[in-house]
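Go through this chain for my students:
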Amino acid sequence: MLKKMVYGLESTPGRKGELAMEAKSKSATYALAMVGVMAAVTCVLAPMSVAIGDVPITLTNLVVYFSLYLLGWKRGSASVLVYILIGMVGVPVFSGFSGGLGKLAGATGGYILGFLPMAVIAGWVIDHSQNRAVHICGMILGTAVCYALGTAWYCFLTQNPLQAALWTCVIPFIPFDLGKMVAAMAVGPILRGRLARAGLNPEG
């Protein structure tokens, strides 16, 4: 009898509304906290780089890919923006523990700024499809835009021809970036599904 009364109370429209509001609040709190957490993770991992030329290999884009699965495209992109702004004011969170406007205005600054449209494009595709092959296509497209913006800026500042810039700044990185995409594609949907089952909606 007591169980029926409790169930009846939980089934009332008012109680259902309260539960829905609680779930929405929980999801929003999680999302805001995770924007900060993922921005912090990016700040920690991005400076750790391996120089193979003018443009170093970093883990920045791997963190961005995972952020998109954990937060959705809007909040994932917000975490990237927070990371860029932190570096812009001089905190050494860019590759090689560098920071400041000078880094963004330098030869490789276009690739850093390119992480933002990369996140928007790849994240939007991930949010609108459950097909992992589509996800990796979205990441490839977003990364290609990052490559294009960064290489255009690099060519403008260094006056190097496009072919030389591609061999210096793009082609050596393709295998590494593809590996990061595959890792994100393999693990990201699993994490996203577990968060959804916990009532934590990446898309808010």
Remarks:
- The mean pLDDT is 88.
- The beta strands are 50-51, 56-57.
